[in-house]
Amino acid sequence: MTSPMQPRQSAAADPGEPEPDPNRDWPPLHPRHLATHAPYRRALVIVLIGFAMGSLFVFSYIDALGRPVARRITTAVVGSAPERGPFVSALETAASKGLILRSYPTRRAAQRAIDRQEVYLALVFGASSTRSVTVLLSSASGPSVARVLSTALPQAANSARTALAIRDTHPLPSQDPSGLASFYLTIGATILGFVTTFQLRANARPLPLPPWLAFTGGLAVIGSLVLVSVVKGVLHALPVPFFEGWGVLALQMITATAVAAAMATLIGRWAIIPTWLLFVVLGNTSSGGAVAPALLPQPFSFLSRALPSGATVGLLRTAAYFPAAMWTEPLLVLGGWALVAVTGLIVASRLLGRGPGSLP
């Protein structure tokens, strides 16, 4: 007979089944329910991340590129203070105090500074009695700078009552009047690099690290060859020496593929997020291809010198228009990124025991 103090056991209860945990949700979800809801939750997370990434892209482009303002336009000045005073003061006012003035003894020295990309333009003043200035402007150094100055220079000349003559020392070709070929070429190499990386991960697994490196290395070499051939040989839009352009684009593609692969090794399916932020949101915005670094706000002006996309745009532009300029800094930046990205991919794969082409 059952004691009144003891709970009555249900006749349908299985004596071998454990008692339900009172702290657990009840009734428990059937595994079929979990399998049904998981894709929806993942889809919602992906859509929200897509909104965030797209918003960052639009915000960074409009904020940094939509309102180009003179901030750090390095300018060579040739002439004594009495000759240049009124015009320079008026130009600084018209350019929102965004000029960085550097004195040079002769017109030839100022022209050499433009050829080396040390300055964007030069102001060469005549005798004080003539009240004239010759502006040596380089469109290839930064088309956006030339556009900003196209308004500021006439305003300054009218204000200072100075005769103005403008000479473009490095004009852009008719096939690329806006000077965007190096920018689009960099974007193409970058997208080809990291998108192909994610497609390999999605559709060519399992793929061990050595053949992965072989495939992506071949992609960089052949892909950059195709891109530079199209831009230089077919479109004639960028007068870059063939082998220099090929090498620079190959380094950019190696960097893009290696960074994407390293992120895939470290964080798996979410690797697109840091890759997108690095190359698209920050890299393309700060590259100087659409708007020159002298017109960009911080931190984009600094990032143009620190990120691989800015180095690639600078190297392509230098090779095409300024063979006398120094390659050291952008080449070290781009080569350093490529080396660190490939090394990081190999080290991460060895330490974690998986590679970008491994099964999940």
Q: Strand tally, please? A: 5
Summarize the biggest pleated sheet: 5 strands, mixed
Number of helices: 11
> Distance between termini?
58 Å
Helix and strand element order: HEHEHEEHEHHHHHHH
Beta-strand content estimate = 5-15%
**What's the helical proportion of residues?**
55-70%
Q: Give the overall shape.
A: elongated
Radius of gyration, CA atoms, in whole angstroms: 30 Å
| Structural class label | alpha/beta
Unreliable stretches: 1-5, 7-13
Q: Kindly state the mean pLDDT as a whole number? A: 85
What does this structure look like?
With 360 residues, the protein is an alpha/beta fold. Helix content is 59%, strand content 8%. The protein contains eleven helices and five strands, in the order αβαβαββαβααααααα. It has helices at 31-65, 81-94, 107-115, 143-160, 181-203, 209-234, 242-267, 272-286, 300-306, 308-321, 328-352, and strands spanning 73-78, 99-103, 121-125, 132-137, 163-168. Helix 5 (181-203) runs parallel beside helix 7. The protein is elongated, with a radius of gyration of 30 Å.
Give descriptors for this structure.
alpha/beta, five-stranded mixed beta sheet, 11 helices, 5 strands, disordered N terminus
Entry summary:
The protein contains eleven helices and five strands; from the N terminus they run H-E-H-E-H-E-E-H-E-H-H-H-H-H-H-H. It has 360 residues and is α/β, with parallel strands linked by helices.
Give a topology summary:
Blueprint: H1 31-65, E1 73-78, H2 81-94, E2 99-103, H3 107-115, E3 121-125, E4 132-137, H4 143-160, E5 163-168, H5 181-203, H6 209-234, H7 242-267, H8 272-286, H9 300-306, H10 308-321, H11 328-352
Parallel strand pairs: 1-2, 1-3, 4-5
Antiparallel strand pairs: 3-4
Helix pairs in contact: 1-8, 2-4, 5-6, 5-7, 5-8, 5-10, 6-7, 7-8, 7-10, 7-11, 8-9, 9-10, 10-11
